[in-house]
Amino acid sequence: MHSHRPETLARGAEPARPGTLHARSVIADISVPPVPGRVVRFGRGGRPDVDLSVAEGDLRVSRRHGELTYREGKWWLRNTGQQLVRLPRGRMMHSSSGPIPLETGYTPLFVRGSGYREHLVELYVTDHDERGGGARQEDATLPPKRWPLDDEERLLLVVLGQHYLLYEECPRPLSYRQAALELDYVCGEGVWGERRIERKVGAVRRRIERGGDFPYSVLREDDGAGPSDHNLLHNLLRGLVESTTLVPPDLELLDGDVDG
């Protein structure tokens, strides 16, 4: 259900031309060529109301909940339903939101339903380098993008982000005061303090922001050098854990003696 390869989204299909849209829900899947003006609709209804059925029986989902239109060389997504549509990185779309273009590759979206239910719609837009298809099961796995950290930075971020590394629900960073107390225990009293933590975290955030490819914002637009904002620190830790730059075995740093 979560494969990102287009051939799994269009079972048994011939290699698709660039720009082909593959869409799948739990109950249906379709492949649509990139024809200017083509509209693909999805929602609770059946044909001819929609091309892709989603969430049969969930009355919180609109019969026509969303649509994708091919124009200007891209598929444009629009929410036409009453409930929100959630996109990657927490982005929400309301029916009043403007259309957004899909990038090539995989995009999951979630339609809000009854209670805590969300209904997954998987979208895949074929890229140029996939023409000709062919299985690539034997190709080497591409590792996730990871960001370099020195030993002190890793220790500090593990302390601040230990709840993230435990994969807790809705984790938040430790405060600088809490982190300083824990670092005193690990490294020896007086080695770390709140000001040093602030400087270290700021340096990491600025370095990562300069790289330009971090998935979340880690600096304020108006002041990149000031104290760490709690939400931006959350973004930093979330991105480092999701990229496996920080991993659960790093928590072992909190158990042993570390030379600060």
UniProtKB/TrEMBL annotation:
Entry-linked InterPro entries: FHA_dom, SMAD_FHA_dom_sf
Protein's recorded name: FHA domain-containing protein
Gene3D superfamilies hit by this protein: 2.60.200.20
All copies of domain FHA, residue ranges: 40-92
Organism of origin: Streptomyces milbemycinicus
Record keywords, A-Z: Phosphoprotein
CDD domains reported for this sequence: FHA
Classification via Pfam families: FHA (PF00498)
